[in-house]
Amino acid sequence: MHKLFLTLAGIVGTLTFFHTVVAAQSDFPLSPAKASILSEKTAVQPGKPVRVAVRLEMESGWHTYWKNPGDSGLSTQVDWSFAPETKKPAIIAGPLWPSPLRFDQGGLIGYGYEGEAWLLYTITPPGDLKIGSTYTLKAEVQWLACKEACVPGNATLSLVLPVAKTSAPSSDAEQIANLFRALPRDPTTEGATVWFEKSSAPYAYALRLMGSVPEGAALYFFSENAADVDGSAPQVAEVQGDGVTLRLKAQDNAPAVKRLAGVLEIRDGQGIRAWSVQGPLLDAPPKKQQLTAAADPSLSLVLLYAYVGGLILNIMPCVLPVIALKIFQFVRQGAEDPRAIFRHGLVFSAGILLSFLALAAVLLLAREGGERLGWGFQFQSPGFLLFMVALVFALGLSLFGVFEVGGGLTGVGQSLSYKEGMAGSFFSGVLATTLATPCTAPFMGAAVGFALAQSPVVTLWVFLFLGLGMATPYLILASDPRLVRFVPKPGAWMLSFKQFTGFFMVGTALWLLGVLQAHIAGGGLVQVLAFLLVLALGCWVLGTWGGVAATPISRWLARATALALVAGSYWLFANPVISEGKIQVKLQPKAQQGKAPRGGIAWQEWSPEAVQSALAAGKDVFVDFTADWCLTCKVNEAVTLKHASVVKLFDDGRLVPMKADWTHKDERITSVLKSLGRSGVPVYLFYRAADPENPVVLPEVLTPDLVANTLLGKK
What we know:
The chain has 17 helices and 22 strands.
């Protein structure tokens, strides 16, 4: 009764104060809080996300409120609008809230911020904005600032940014990046696992934590929903072995709770850690295999997974073109000096290992900057795809004999040929790794997902073992002289084999071109083809007049002409496709529900809401997380998901098939993959309506029998 009285008194007092403010504005003419918008960029680019923050600066002693204000108070609200309006609306991700403070207001508990309050957003403007125009971000902000009394405030904010091809960091970029880095983290990134269970009276819930918690640390759980947890009641922490249980009391007359979500704050001598935690309210501890703590699976097992996954990458379709090229290099180099195979094999392997470590470093830096990237993330960039198309196409032309890469190998001198040969082997290792990233081999998904949730040292070790697995066949061939005998002797067949491998390269370029097409409109593909045509002309000029036999003047003129042709065609044809917005980024069409392609599955468009809706209707759900650039996905689709026995399982309507397309960056898909301990596609999930909280995760490589047995519940 005491708490109920205080709550009613607080509400009545707040309403009375609002009435007083409206009736007598002169009593509080100004709010003690000032609102503003900050952007991390000096300009917006069509279709490119930009991070922004709404800041509330408060006078000393005043505070505003979190998304759950607690027993009294009002949460800050922001309503966005944009000018000029276009046919395609902006995509708004947020708000993201920093970890709050806890206020005791005469027995009423509130959650909020003192000094400054921040609401963080990622806004993606439409892709049809015109370069040279302006884009206005408008926000209607409403808040309640309290000290001894409470003063409501509101402001209409606007931020005008130019629309440009490129953008630079603003003066607020570092501060905004730090705010995103300081947001509550996933506990698995710090080697911990958190889940919720039902508890015995007088407590309703138990937040259980497995992981390292310093002795004497203070824990507090901020519930996102004020109706779930009683903020005024003490939260009791109990140390149990290698974990901690935090017991929480429910609100009086609280509705039935199925899930809990919020921020777990841990205070110790080292400072404050804030974790974002959420999950279903379980009747009992989850099974061991459902946990994602760092200790499960063991690091040694993950390293074994990484090694085997890297080994299998060598037979994936992404890498086969480079493997054929490397076999030819082994034959050519072994003919000159059998010992050269050993040296080139080591350098080729070094290229693989350093590329994997570099990729891990990029992912770690992005993670520290607040970005969430996954395996194959670079194939979501049209600029990177265009570069790879041009590179692989040019390599194919060189194999056909249009021009020579490192033409000095035959006559310039022994030392120069050796040096260029080593560089070529190293580059081949880098290229093999780059082309491997669209493929996810068996065992790789779990290993990479685990790695990206761990400390930087563990992440680097996992990626190093991936590289070792991929490099092992070449290290074996290079290190054992007896295996050199199996290398074919040189002869006239080498020219034919070299030209034959060129078709692999051109085929890879066509595949990459198809992936690039998913990012651009139809006219953009024609411009890219025009760029490749002029690129081929430049390679022909280089090969015809820039060879070793040509005079020095001829070689320099050929190189200058080829460079001018390639650079000019890029700026004329290719650059508008990927940066100027003359050809807009093509949005992915929604899957046509209920209309199956002939002999195929009637895929529906995935969204978390669509999954929940189907499960609530009592239907099972099968989700295919895929991307146009993922070759493993395409092989599974052709061999398994279009198999008649699998298609038939979806015919009766009791099983809903959904496709989550990660061809373009999608934070929702990235979040789901991260929650599953995965960092790339393919991923296949099967939700049973009878047990929706424990979806089945299928392997990366599918077979019709495997899918059928999973969907039918067979072992």
